[in-house]
Amino acid sequence: MKNTNAERELAFDFLRVTEAAAIESAKTMGQGDRKHSDHVAVEAMRLVMDQVPMQGRIVIGEGERDEAPMLYIDEEVGGADFPNDVRSKFPEVDIAVDPLEGTNLCALGASNAIAVLAAAERGGLLNAPDMYMDKIVVGPSCKGSVDIEAPVAENLRNIARRLGRDVDDLTVVCLDRDRHRQLIADVRAAGARIRLISDGDLSTAISAAVAGTNIHALMGIGGAPEGVITAAAMKCLNGEIQAKLVFDHERLGVDKDKIPPIDQLMKRINSMGITDTNKIYDTNDLAPGKKIIFAATGVTDGSLLKGVRFFGEGKRTHSVVMTTETKSIRFVDTVHVEGGPDAVIRF
Ligand code: VTB
Fold it and tell me: Which residues line ligand 1 (CB under 6 A)?
C-alpha cells in the first residue's frame, strides 16, 4: 500500500466486504448448518472483495489452493472490474480472512459470531499455517505485563496490578475445551473469574483489548490463523498478543483428522522460514505490517458488536474498522436500505 489515502479508502472497501459476509451468514442464523453458514459468508466475501481496487493476495484464507474453491492461500483478489494496466497501479495488499469466525455460533444463533479480515502491505501478515496456537491477549493497560511462559497466577497478578484492581475482579476468557483443564484450574486457583466460551476466540480477543467490555484477558489454545488476525487488531487497538505454535497434538486432545500430519506441518513451517518450534511470537511477529487495516462485522450479537438485524425495508449491520496509519477506530452502524424511495430510516 503506497499512501495513507489509499489505505483510508481501502478501509471502507473492506468494511463493505465484511458487511456482505455478515449479512449472508446472518440469514442462516440458527439453521444448524455451520458449513452452509460458512459457505455463504465465503461466497459473499469473495464477490465484494474482488471489486476492491487493489492487487490483493490472500495469505490466510479458507485453506490451501487445492482445498478451497475460493479465498484460498495465494489467491489473487481485487480489481476485477478494471483492465490490467489500471489494476497494476493499485496498491499491493496481503489479506487474512475469516469470513465467518464462529461457524457453530452462527449455526446455533449463539453470540459473538463475526465476519472479519485484516490487510497489510506485502509481507505484513505472518503466513501462519492452519494449526493450533497457544495465546494470551491483553489490552493496552496490560501491555508488557504478561509472559506466555509465566505461571497463570503471576500473569493474573500483573494484569490486576496494571488495572488497579484485585485478581478476583478479573474476568479471563478461554475456550471450553478439555485441553484447557489445567489452565482453567490455575485461573480458578488464582481467584479470577472465568468465562468459558464454546467458540470464537478472535472476537473475544478483540473485546479483551477494549476497556469496558469486562473481559481482561484471553488465554488458551485456538487457531493460529486467527492469532494473526488478532495480532492485526492488537496493532490497531494498542493491545498485545503473545503466542506459541502447538505441535504437541496429544496435549490438544482433538481429532487427528482436524490437524494436518506433522510432516506436512513441518514442511509448511520450514517454508515459512520458521526453524524454532518453541518460538514465542509477539504482536509484531504475527502482524509486522506498518499499514494494517482491520475490519469486522457482527453476525450475531456480541460483547463488542451487534449482530445483523433484518427489517422490512433493509438490514442493519454493526462493524468496527481500524487502521494503524490513521490510528482510528470506527464503530460503524450501517443501514442497508432496500425498501425503495419511501423506505423509513430509523435512528
Ligand atoms: C475453534 C474456534 C476458535 O479456534 O475453537 C478453533 O471456535 C479451534 O479449536 O474461534 P477446536 O478445534 O478445539 O474447536 C478458533 O477458530 C480460533 O482461534
Answer: 101-102, 175, 177, 199-202, 222-223, 226, 254, 258
Q: Which of 175, 203, 258 to mutate to test the pocket of ligand 1 (most atoms within 8 A of CB)?
A: 175
pTM (2 decimals)?
0.94
Distance from the alpha carbon of residue 200 to the mean position of ligand 1, in angstroms: 6
For ligand 1, atom 5, which residue shows the shortest CA distance? 199
Question: Which residue's CA is minimally distant from atom 3 of ligand 1?
Answer: 200
SS3 readout for the chain: CCCHHHHHHHHHHHHHHHHHHHHHHHCCCCCCCHHHHHHHHHHHHHHHHCCCCCEEEEEECCCCCCCCCCCCCCCEECCCCCCHHHHCCCCEEEEEEEEEECHHHHHHCCCCCEEEEEEEECCCCCCCCCCEEEEEEECHHHCCCCCCCCCHHHHHHHHHHHHCCCHHHCEEEEECCHHHHHHHHHHHHHCCEEEEECCCHHHHHHHHCCCCCCCCEEEEEEEHHHHHHHHHHHHHHCCEEEEEECCCHHHHCCCHHHCCCHHHHHHHHHHCCCCCCCCCECHHHHCCCCCCEEEEEECCCCCCCCCCEEECCEEEEEEEEEECCCCEEEEEEEEEECCCCCCCCCC
Q: Which has the minimum average pLDDT: 151-165, 244-258, 266-280?
A: 244-258
Instruction: Mean pLDDT check: name the lowest of 59-63, 93-97, 167-171, 257-261.
Output: 257-261
Hey, which of 60, 177, 181, 201 would you mutate to test ligand 1's pocket, going by the most ligand atoms within 8 Å of its Cβ? 201
Q: What is the pLDDT of residues 114-123, one digit of tens each?
A: 999 999 999 9
Q: Which domains does the chain have, with CATH numbers?
A: 4-125+290-337 (3.30.540.10), 132-286 (3.40.190.90)
